[in-house]
Amino acid sequence: MLDLLSQISALRRPRLLIRAARIGAQTYRRDARLPRLLGYGVTMRLGPTLLKLMALEAEMNEKRESGDAGYSIATHVDLLTAIMGESQLLRAQTQTADPMQIT
To answer: Cα(67)–Cα(84) distance, rounded to whole angstroms?
Structure first.
């Protein structure tokens, strides 16, 4: 999981996107945000959820960089907020639990 957290910290995005996502991450609620992004009825553990969110965010960032008309800044901020919120939950879990139990 530490490798996953280092991948998240290595993301480089425009300052305004990061600032908006940080504001959203302060009130992050997993049960409200994840169904919109990953689909309703999907419950995933922290690690797989973060991987899926990072893949979706990478696709969104590619659209942003290429000037694709399908790019949505709101969705991009939503994905970045979820990534930040999930990584906070993962960090909290790794600090309080036995690392061998986290998957």
So the answer is: 25
